[in-house]
Amino acid sequence: MYEYDVIVVGAGGAGLRAAIAAQEAGAEVAIVTKLHPVRSHTGAAEGGINAALREGDDWTDHAYDTMKGSDYLGDAPAVEALCKESPEEVIQLEHWGMAFSRDEDGRVSQRPFGGLSFPRTTYAGAETGHHLLHTLYEQVVKRGIEVFDEWHVLDVAVTDDDEPEERSCHGVVAYELATGDVEAFTARDGVILATGGLGQVYDHTTNAVANTGDGVAMAYRAGVPIEDMEMIQFHPTTLPSTGVLISEGVRGEGGILYNANSERLMFEHGYANNDGELASRDVVSRAELTEINEGRGIEDEYVHLDMRHLGEERILDRLENILHLAEDFEGVDGLEEPMPVKPGQHYAMGGIETNEFGETCVEGLYAIGECACASVHGANRLGGNALPELTVFGKRAGRHAAGEEMGEPKITTGKTGDYEKGTVDSPVELGEPGSGAVADGGSAAETADEVVERTLERQRDRIERLLEKDDGVQHASIRADVQKSMTRNVNVFREAGALKEALRDIREARERYSDVYVEDPSRTYNTDLIHTIETRNLLDVAETITVGALARDEFRGAHWRKEAQERRDDVWLKHTMLSWNDGSPELWYKPVVLEGEEKTYEPKVRSY
Amino acid sequence: MSTQQPETQEDDESEGELETTSPAQQQRLEKKRQRAAAREQREAEAAERAAADENTVHLKVFRYDPEVEGKQEPRFDDFYVPFHKGMTVLDALMYARDNYDSSLTFRHSCRQAICGSDALFINGSQRLGCQTQVSDLDDPVRVEPLPHQEVVKDLVVDMEHFYDQMEAVEPYFQTDDLPDDELEEQHQTRENREKVKMSTRCIWCGACMSSCNIAAGDNQYLGPAALNKAYRFAMDEREGADMKQRRLEIIEQEHGVWRCQTQFSCTEVCPKDIPLTEHIQALKREAVKSNLKFW
After folding, report:
1. Positions of CATH 3.90.700.10 in chain A
2. Is A524 within 8 Å of B152 when comparing Cβ atoms?
3. By the number of CB atoms within 10 A of the CB, which of A111, A205, A253, A531 ranks highest?
């Protein structure tokens, strides 16, 4: 049994930043992470960090761009916090030694990025995330913050009061990969989930193999509402064979997209007559797929991204990493030929519902970074807005969890007076097979120790069951089938029939999963066991994405529906919420907060 | 004492750094181009073979598990994996695991040579599984855990010693001289950023340490990755002269830079093309210079 003030789950940019902030605020902190911190997928972020740093720019312009980019599904208090605090966080990173690219005068460089009205993306070559991750980890080492690496968190220890809003979180239970031990970590003040992405729901993704939506799934099953899960970003420039990301920085520096007829598609086919290649990601991804679907793709699969005209010197200076990626993973020399690219799953705008301090409706449970939904990104994230989200909200949640007074939040969490019930026309039963919504709540109030102990026992039983079962279904085929179905049915262009098909596939996968077993009997570094547990998380997450997508019959940001190809502000200016409800998911909605500190962001027609 | 004499000609290190790194980059790119051409040819051949159904990759994979009967004695298992164009060693391992033996164990995450999880000993040299095309290798493909590190299970080695060495060089930025305005950055010249650029690319994969004979014989040797980390900060003009002096003292210790015998094995295996040996040599020169100054 371990005990700390604050437990941070995950050690990417958000988790590391939160741990530093909590410790600076006086808390005793531990990070529990399934990967060693430097293995985290923040390291794969390429393009940059948006921050209004320079004369002529202003955080309010950044906020406006972000709200527009979100297609008015972002919540203004969170968006404004991001844009206001990003500059100080960028300078903080610089003061911690981060190797930013530099201008001639020695100041931090900035470049243009999609959907931005000012070139405000600071960067470090085309490997900004790598530098950010390592810089933050260096600070964690410097401060001597305890890191439990290769410890996979199995569950959060949350009370079982009837209503999620009455529950509280007192720690986590984790599995040590090296030894097979299952141990409890008690958190006196707070648990901060920073588990990152969920891209492994799809089979063509820029995400790491470890990005299995663990935090989202754990919080969801503990009763925390999950928000806007249908809002999945498909990045327009990923390598066709592997899904490896080619940074938006290529287009920021002047890279051009061509179709099979060598037409500059963004202009010549009118997808974005002003901003062209630098339109928002959702716009560019749809443009590419439209070209491909209408027969103007190359090999019916991809388009070309050409950066040759930028010249070798500039490419080597600012985008060298892209040359290596294209060469190593697609066998293409970006100096000599255009690079093949197509849209690939990249980012989840939705996630665990939080307010602007990272708090969920469960007391003592926080979420930050990609696993969270404050919501900063709404229906579409702008390039360069993920990394500042990590540091800004990491810092906020770390301080808040450590007990700093930060004022009243403007964003609500959990069901409040604005609750609106939703319905979805699912062809199958959702949630846990055979659950029947038998809540086990209502028992006598538990102490914090009892909650942690109960969670520990449950998870030990679960591990024993998985290891001792001798036959059944193995997780790998279940995972592969769901990934294929999601890529086929819940992609950039969505329609009801395919979405229902995905729900049927997920249901079938859930039923097969109820017979899952782990073949490797070893207690030593059992990745078979961990992957099996992750696959369960993927199933829960895939279902929430698909349910949200089926219910939302409109076109907003990254979410396009064949049956309803227009944004419908009269009906849909609201967040999709899903509550686990003890195994029988409940769909509901809450309004978007468009009122900012100084102004209200009135929805406008979104064109680039 | 080291057998290596410090080199004398290094004064042009700081000026003209932009010009000097550029040819190095050119060289690497040229090497890559040649490799790409060779690969294209092999791929054409491979594509022909792929047309035939029986086309497979033969993997010979090291297996060991201290607590599973039959795996306590290290052995090699054979896997025959269907080949496809562009297949990496990591792809092949994942295929074998997901289709033949779910207990096959290895670290991996990003699949794009940035997380540094999957450094392996492939056909006799340290490489990242995800960055190594099967078509570039002789068949059968022999996959072993990194040498000189304790094997935990199958291809997983204990990285703790590597991490300890990394942390021994105070691997974090330190300065007493930050701008007063908390919204003002420190300035850094493009030349200085260029000078440390390659060193900042380290992904902590451990390939260099595993390839190093000195590290194999001297467990306390800081090793190429940690020394490179020290270089990254010692050469960063933002830290200032006092801190540089402190950093040189750390790397001059008994198991520091002077152990390096410039065999270049680390530089050869580095998947991020970091000129590790050059960086260690540069630290030696700085150390000599500063010792002369204080002498």
Report:
1. 235-343
2. yes
3. A205
Query: How many angstroms separate the CA atoms of A360 and A376, rounded?
Result: 15
The domains spanning B53-157 and B159-173+185-294 adopt the same CATH topology = no
Confidence of residue A415 (pLDDT cuts 50, 70, 90): very high
- Banded model confidence at residue B10, pLDDT cuts 50, 70, 90: very low
Instruction: Burial-class residue B9 by CB neighbours within 10 Å (0-12, 13-18, 19+).
Output: exposed
Check if CATH label 1.10.600.10 holds for domain A448-571. no
Average pLDDT over every residue of A64-74: 98
CATH 3.40.50.720 for domain A235-343: no
* Whole-number CA gyration radius for chain B: 22
pLDDT for residue B33: 63
| Rama region for B182: left / alpha / beta (φ>0; ψ in -120 to 50; rest) | alpha
pLDDT of residue A444: 65
H/E stretch holding A345 = strand A339-348
Structure tokens at A29: 């902190």
Burial per residue of A209-232, b for 16 or more beta-carbon CB atoms within 10 angstroms, e otherwise: bbbbbbbbbbbbbbbbbbbbbbbb
Contact A114, A251 (CB under 8 A): yes
Phi, psi of A588 (to 5 degrees): -150, 175
Instruction: Give the CATH number of domain B53-157; options: 1.10.1200.120, 3.30.470.10, 3.10.20.30, 3.30.450.40.
Output: 3.10.20.30
Query: Model confidence at B98, in pLDDT bands (50, 70, 90)?
Result: very high
**For domain B159-173+185-294, is the CATH number 1.10.1060.10?**
yes
Q: State the span(s) of chain A assigned CATH 1.20.58.100.
A: 448-571
What average pLDDT does the segment A266-276 reach?
A: 96
Question: What is the DSSP secondary structure assignment for residue A298, as one 8-state letter?
Answer: B
Separation between Cα atoms, residue A124 and residue B152, nearest integer Å:
36
Contacts A–B by Cβ distance under 8 A: 172
Residues of chain B with C-beta less than 8 angstroms from the C-beta of A94: 185-186
Average pLDDT over residues A422-450: 79
Nearest chain B Cα to A45, which residue?
Answer: B114
Residues 6+ apart with CB under 8 A from B68: A520, A521, A522, B103
B126 closest CA partner among B73, B162, B79: B162
What rounded mean pLDDT belongs to chain B? 88
Rounded to an integer, the average pLDDT of A163-184 is 97
* Dihedral, B65, B70, B73, B74 alpha carbons, nearest 10: -60
Q: Which of A69-73, A438-442, B264-268 has the lowest average pLDDT?
A: A438-442
B19 pLDDT above the threshold of 60: no
Subunit contact A39:B39, Cβ cutoff 8 A: no
- The domain limits of chain B are 53-157, 159-173+185-294
What pLDDT score was predicted for residue B26? 65
Strands A493-494 and A351-353: unpaired
| Architecture of the domain defined by A2-232+346-415 | 3-Layer(bba) Sandwich (3.50)
B96 to chain A nearest CA, in Å? 11
A281 labelled catalytic: yes
